[in-house]
Amino acid sequence: MSTEISNIVLKTENLSIGYRKKNEQQIVASGINIEVYPGELVAVIGVNGSGKSTLLKTLSGIIKSIDGEVFIDKNKLSNIEPDKLSKDVSLVLTEQMLSKNLSVIELVALGRQPYTNWIGRLTKNDLKKIMHAIQLVNIEDIKNKKCHELSDGQFQKVLIARALAQDTSLIILDEPTTHLDLYHKAYVLKLLQKLSKETNKAILFASHEINLALQLCDKLLILKDNKTLFGTPAELIKTDVLSNLFPKQLIHFDKESSSFKIK
Ligand SMILES: Nc1ncnc2c1ncn2[C@@H]1O[C@H](COP(=O)(O)OP(=O)(O)OP(=O)(O)O)[C@@H](O)[C@H]1O
């Protein structure tokens, strides 16, 4: 086994995702085979309803897969205890059920929950990790503000800092650029790219920002009509998957500029 293979953070084998209702199965996507290594930034791309959120929920253990396997740090996801999983994977969801009455530093500190004792006392090491996470996303100037005082872009950075404070090898984010303007979309995705390289964490996110993802990500997973394709931007551009992603009468993929254009 090569060193690279032995370092794999996330791997899926013939994964099928979807929902079970009584005796019925609704398969959303199948044949998902991905491999994500430390320091890689990976985007999950697909039209509305293609299964991006379902996949992220499956990879983070919120819902069970229909078939196939997920491995996190080479352990079968189904065998990982919840306590251990919260030290392996951090999850950033768009609609956070969090009290926005918390200050920024208090919210980032929640990332240390898997490590603190039952009264939640923070050790010196916890405080060090919290301050380091705040520095990494460059939010020192707002650390004492209440979360309800923040813009959507600032709040997204705080959620990313909380995931960093959780100190997991894998960070999963569901649509981290929702509600952001073009500058802040690019800023947040560029920040994720920088963090993946600086911290050597694997970062996987679902997004509709395909042009940005093609420029910034190491690999992309495309979900389309229950099928999936995984590869580097260069590999995917060589195939027809991008040209066929949207109805051609409105949007086409320009191979020369590696971006989507409106007709
Ligand atoms: N709890 C659920 N039970 C049954 N089916 C669901 C459930 N949640 C989602 N679905 C269905 O699964 C499919 C994929 O939904 P999902 O939310 O994963 O797509 P998505 O790619 O994240 O969409 P969007 O881009 O709109 O956020 C859709 O057909 C949706 O209706």
Question: What does this protein structure show overall?
Answer:
The protein has 263 residues and is an alpha/beta fold. The protein has a single domain (3-94, 169-262), classed as 3-Layer(aba) Sandwich (Rossmann fold), CATH 3.40.50. It has 9 helices and 13 strands. It has helices spanning 3-6, 52-59, 82-88, 104-109, 124-136, 152-165, 182-199, 210-216, 233-238, and strands at residues 10-21, 24-32, 35-36, 41-45, 67-72, 75-76, 89-92, 170-174, 202-207, 219-224, 227-231, 251-254, 259-262. It has a 6-stranded mixed β-sheet, with helices on both faces. Strands 1, 2, 3, 5 and 6 form a 5-stranded antiparallel β-sheet that branches. The longest helix is centred in the last third of the chain and has 18 residues, at 182-199. The protein is globular, with a radius of gyration of 19 Å. The structure holds adenosine-5'-triphosphate (ATP). Residues 19, 26, 28, 46, 48-54 line the site of adenosine-5'-triphosphate. Adenosine-5'-triphosphate is lined by residues 19, 26, 28, 46, 48-54. GO terms for molecular function: ATP binding; ATP hydrolysis activity. Residues 10-250 form the ABC transporter domain. InterPro entries: AAA+_ATPase (IPR003593), ABC_transporter-like_ATP-bd (IPR003439), Metal_Ion_Import_ABC (IPR050153), P-loop_NTPase (IPR027417). Keywords: ATP-binding, Nucleotide-binding, Transport. Pfam families: ABC_tran (PF00005).
